[in-house]
Each structure stands twice: as structure tokens, then as C-alpha cells.
Amino acid sequence: MEKKSSNNEFSLRIISRNTNAPIFLIISFATIFCMIYVNTIVSDLSEITGLRRYNISDLPQTIFTVELRDHDHHEDAKQVLVTSLTPTQVHDDDDSEVPDSLILPKNLTTRDQRILWFRRKLPESELLNSNELTREFHSRVLEFLNQGCGIQFFMTWFSPAKTFGNRELLAMETLFKSHPQGCLMIISRTMDSKRGYGILKPVMDRGFRVLTVTPDIPFLLKNTPAEAWLNEMRKGNKDPGFIPFPQNLSNLIRLALLYKYGGVYLDTDFIVLKDFSSLRNTIATQSENSNTKQWTRLNNAVLIFDIKHPLLYDFMEEFALTFNGNKWGFNGPYLVSRVVERVGSNPGYNLTIVPPKAFYPANWIEIRKFLKQPGNETESAWVERKVKELNDGGTFAVHIWNSRIRDSKIEEGSVLAKLISDHCIICKNIYT
Ligand SMILES: *[C@@H]1O[C@H](CO)[C@@H](O)[C@H](O)[C@H]1NC(C)=O
Ligand SMILES: *[C@@H]1O[C@H](CO)[C@@H](O)[C@H](O)[C@H]1NC(C)=O
Ligand SMILES: *[C@@H]1O[C@H](CO)[C@@H](O)[C@H](O)[C@H]1NC(C)=O
Ligand SMILES: CC(=O)N[C@H]1CO[C@H](CO)[C@@H](O)[C@@H]1O
Ligand SMILES: CC(=O)N[C@H]1CO[C@H](CO)[C@@H](O)[C@@H]1O
Question: Domain span at residue 187?
């Protein structure tokens, strides 16, 4: 029972509904952790992180305001915590789908219309603003990373939680199959919710370490070359372009995350086949000249960088200087290609550029073949060869270009189906 009640406390959403109450203190997760678990040893860390905010069954309609006067004396604080729980109103962001509101209406075609619309819309959107949840961002990340992660991964999710589907979940499973000691942070306001927790629970329940965390974007960009860019955006001085702004922000946020914390950024549409720990300061080639083997395009769907790596700084600088929300890919894959072409050979950067087979063994046209069930023996043999080649060769992960194949089924017996079956953990809904 001890454990149950402490988990209850864990699921509290620490939010003051009454902003006039000065006694309310924002306290770090680390502190709560100490207070609550001071006498309660719980070994399953994923359970702790998973239950940190939401326990669906326990807190159906209630949140609590926690009032603390002293969080240095753990025993006292624990008592305060236990005795001063005050049920208040629900703060339920289960279905927060705010990013949608920043998607430009189709009828706004000129630059001036877009700027005007964006200037009006941005303040209403929570995307760039600070609140109780965003202010906890850094301490939640540090607390999570403090567990001693084998390798730290970041993903971003700027779409509604309900669109985090089977393929994303399978991608996550393959990540953990190859990196059981890894820690994955899903940087997302929408997934940092009851609904998001519900989606990820099957993976968390198996002991894998996942944190969904609402980003503090101004904090992430602070003291980076993109800080001024963000301020211009917020003032409404810049054209957001017609490409969904939140998605394009992802191109920038991944850079800022790695700059601040180091680790691996991975898009949510990779099937991971192997451990990445041999890779350092690495960017992957998407396409190369077949004769010279020189890369022709790099991609930012996977980035592996040490903390404060100067190339990340260069990427952010380029983003801020050349942001163009009207050109697909301009701030993402094209950007990293442009910058690496310019400074990548700088000897101090120790940059490793891996060939296409490492992460992009198929382009977005070839990937369609990976979805298909073999129709005859020749095709079956091809599938077998391909799967073996990918599993045994120098492929770390397969980018499946999900935005291009979202509507196509992964057929039974196909290359992708076989790869996923080989590398999944829960393995539900592969053929969808
Ligand atoms: C675009 O459409 C919205 C309604 O969907 C309308 O309120 C707005 O005035 C339109 N703007 C322009 C510039 O046509
Ligand atoms: C590159 O490697 C050298 C030698 O190991 C090291 O001194 C230097 O700090 C590295 N540079 C970066 C940007 O990591
Ligand atoms: C197998 O199917 C493919 C595609 O339908 C076809 O091009 C190929 O000729 C077939 N091979 C055999 C041996 O039937
Ligand atoms: C402490 C506690 O009651 N935890 C529960 C949280 O919710 C899950 C189901 O969603 C239960 O399995 C846990 O026991
Ligand atoms: C201009 C730009 O970089 N656009 C990107 C916006 O985000 C989508 C989805 O991530 C990318 O495909 C575009 O390339």
C-alpha cells in the first residue's frame, strides 16, 4: 500500500490553479522524487517516470495543488506534501491539439497576409509561450537523464497525440530492442498528456525508459543563434511561410536539443536494426554520386552529436539566417547539406559522414518495394536477400519515409514486415 499511495502522489499534476496564491512553489521533479521515495525503494525507473504525471485510473477527474514551504528537509516536506493536498479543478490537456491552430489557412497566399495572420495567431498558441509545464522542462530532462542512460535519444512530435500511431510505436520498439539501456525523450506538448501516456504505456510497462516532455522553446533557443530568429517570429516580423510552422520548428528544435544535451536525434519513422554506440558526431548521407561515392544530399532525420558541437551551432545559425518556410526541405535536409559542404571538413569538427546504407538504404521511391508482399519466387528471394543484407551489413536503421507511405499498407512477407518482426518488442499491428 505504501507503494500505491506514493505512486498516487507521483501522478499529481503540480499546477497552481490559483495564481494569486503566493505559497505555491514550483518544485523540481528531483525534489519530489527525493521526498516521496525517501523511504520507498522502487527499482523500476520507467514506472516512476511513466507515472510521474498521469495515472489514468487513479486520478480520473481530480488534480491537486501541492503547497510546500520547505523542500530541503525531506521528512518535513514529505509530511507537508501528504497533508496539504487540495483537490482542485481538472487541468486536462488530454486532447490538446493546439499545433493545428498554427497551420496556415489555405486562402492566405501573400506574404503580408501570412505575416498578419501569424502575428495574430502566435500569441494564442501555446507553442512558444511559457507556462507551468514548459518551465519544468529542463529539470524534467535532467532528472530523466540522471538515471544513467546508456545512450540518450530525442524525438519530436508536434502533431496531435492521436496521430502517434502504430508505426511510430513500432519504431520506438525497435529503438529499445537495440538499445535496452537507452533513454528516449519525446519532446512534445501533445504527447505530454494522458492520451500520450496511454499510447506509450505498453512500452513503459516493459521497463523501457521514455519521457514525454513539453518543450520550453524559448529556453532551448536561448543563447543560440536562433534566439533572435525566434524573437522576430514572435513579434510577427517574419514570414512563417506556408509549410506548417510547428513541423518546421522541429528542424530547429532537434539542433537545439543536441546542442544543449548531446545524444541522438531520430525521426519517428526509423526501423532501428543495430546499436548506435559506435557512432559519434555523425550525419548520414541520403544520396551519393554512384561513381565518385561523394555525397550529394545529407539528411537531418538522424543526427548524432556531442553536447555543444560547433557544427550544431553552425546549423542553427544557418537556420536563423536563411529560414524559408516556403521551400520544402530548405530548413532541414538541404540546410545540413549546405552547411556541411561549407564547414564539414573543418578538422576540429571530427565529423563522420556515413554512407546511405547506414540510415537511408532506400529512398522514398525505393521504399515502396519494401512494403510489398513477394508475388513469386524471384521476389521472395529478393526479399530474403534484402533483409539479410540490411540485418547483417552496415545498416544501423532504415528510414521508412513514413510521410510518403503513410497510406500504404506494410504487407505480410515484405522487407519492412520482416525487419519489423525481427526487431520489435511488442509486435502489435505490424501489417497496417
Ligand atoms: C480566409 O478564410 C477565412 C475563413 O475560413 C476568412 O475568415 C478570411 O477572411 C479569409 N481571408 C482572406 C484573406 O481571404
Ligand atoms: C575532435 O577530436 C579532438 C581529438 O580527439 C578533440 O581534441 C576535439 O575537441 C574534437 N572536437 C570536437 C568538436 O569534438
Ligand atoms: C515475378 O513477378 C515480377 C513482378 O510481377 C515479374 O516481373 C517477374 O517476371 C516474375 N518472375 C517470375 C520468375 O515469375
Ligand atoms: C499506484 C497505482 O495505482 N498505479 C496504477 C496506475 O495505473 C495503472 C493502470 O493504468 C495501474 O496498473 C497501476 O497499478
Ligand atoms: C522548409 C522546410 O524545412 N520544410 C520542412 C517542414 O517540415 C516538413 C516535415 O518535417 C519537412 O518535410 C519540410 O521539409
Answer: 111-356
Task: Find the ligand nearest to 117 CA.
Answer: 1
| Cβ of 19 below 6 Å from ligand 3 | no
Give 178-195 pLDDT, tens digit per residue: 999 999 999 999 999 999
Is pTM, for the whole model, over 0.85?
A: no
CB of 378 closer than 6 A to ligand 3?
Answer: yes
Does the pLDDT of residue 395 top 80, yes or no? yes
3-state secondary structure of 401: coil
Ligand 3, pocket-test mutation among 372, 373, 378, 414, most atoms within 8 A of CB: 378
C-alpha closest to that of 220 among 280, 156, 164, 267:
156
Question: Ligand 4: which of 57, 203, 206 to mutate, judged by most atoms within 8 Å of the beta carbon?
Answer: 57
Tens of pLDDT, residue by residue over 20-56, are 333 333 333 333 333 333 333 332 333 333 333 333 3
Proximal ligand: closest to the CA of 309: 2
- Cβ(312)–Cβ(305) below 8 Å: yes
Contact 258, 185 (CB under 8 A): no
Looking up cell 514486415 gives: 417
Do the domain assignments include residue 364?
no
Mutate to test the pocket of ligand 4, among 58, 203, 205 (most ligand atoms within 8 A of CB): 58
d(CA 432, CA 415): 14
Closest-approaching ligand to the CA atom of 312: 2
Residue 202 DSSP symbol: H
Cα end-to-end span (Å), the chain: 41
- Domain assignment present for residue 345? The answer is yes
Cβ(20)–Cβ(92) below 8 Å: no
- Total number of domains constituting the chain: 1
Cα(327) to centroid(ligand 5), Å: 8
- Three-state DSSP class for residue 310: helix
Residue 211 lies in a domain: yes
* Ligand 5, atom nearest to 325 Cα: 1
Report angle CA 244, 245, 250 to the nearest 5 degrees: 105
State the Cα–Cα distance between residues 272 and 263, nearest whole angstrom.
Answer: 16
Ligand 3: which residue has its CA nearest to atom 14?
376
Q: Is 327 a domain residue?
A: yes
Q: Whose CA is nearest to atom 14 of ligand 1?
A: 107
Q: Determine contact, residues 310/351, Cβ cutoff 8 Å.
A: no
